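Reopening closed ticket. The problem is back. First fold of the pair:
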Amino acid sequence: MKRLIALGICLIVGIEVLALILQDRRYVLVASGLALALVLLNVRRVLGHRNEPAAEPDHDDLGDGLRRWLSKTETTIRWSESSRADWDRHLRPMLARRFEIASGQRRAKDPAAFSTTGEMLFGAELWEWVNPNNVTRAGGHQPGPGRAALEEILQRLEQV
């Protein structure tokens, strides 16, 4: 809105300067009036659309969002039930980020407080699966903790 008014003022001033440069002062008032009318019509158009209710999302858009969420959830569950390498690659970073956000503890700021808070919240057994510093390179074929551990971790994160 501010940009529209600023551009309108620049348009009016520009037209007046152009008319004065051309030495034909008969059209200064007419040209400025037309520029002002153009600016006012645009301001009215912009203000008129603010009062209209927002268009409701298309039912297909809602269905697409639900399908994406369902697909992402199914993929997350599959990762939890597969190998430790998948857990370390996909779930551990997500869970560590959610833990940082939920607890307010930043790993980069104070690693000791981050680990202590994690152990207090999850317990030693579950913290092993959330701790971002517990990634192993060699244990890729070991089984992950499974869906029950993921569910328990998410429940504890919700309680924070």
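Second fold of the pair, where the issue appears:
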Amino acid sequence: MRDMLLQCAGLAVIVVALIHGLLGETTVFARASIAPERLRTLLRLVWQAGTVAWIGYGLLLIAAPWMGSEPARHWIAITAIVVFASAACANAVATRARHFGWVMLAGAVVLAAAGY
């Protein structure tokens, strides 16, 4: 059961990351007027770097049960919990809890903690 919870956390993180990347491109950067163009490109790439990093964390959470190492499982879960809890808190504070992202990230944190 612990393995499945950790893997569900990984799937949730990947879904959140894909939504984050898609909404960034279709909503945030589609409406933003950022000049110069070099700065706009930099901001888009940094935004998507977060998306890629979250997908990487999701894959690690999915793979952790198969690694056969309790210390690896421990550190993957703890690091993911800290990263996504801080992201959830930042999202909730920045959007005054009006954005659904913090709820999804908090859900992934709960699943990762339960699977720890």
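Update: turned out to be a display glitch only; the data is intact. The chain has a mean pLDDT of 95. The CA atoms of residues 34 and 40 lie 5 Å apart. Please close again.
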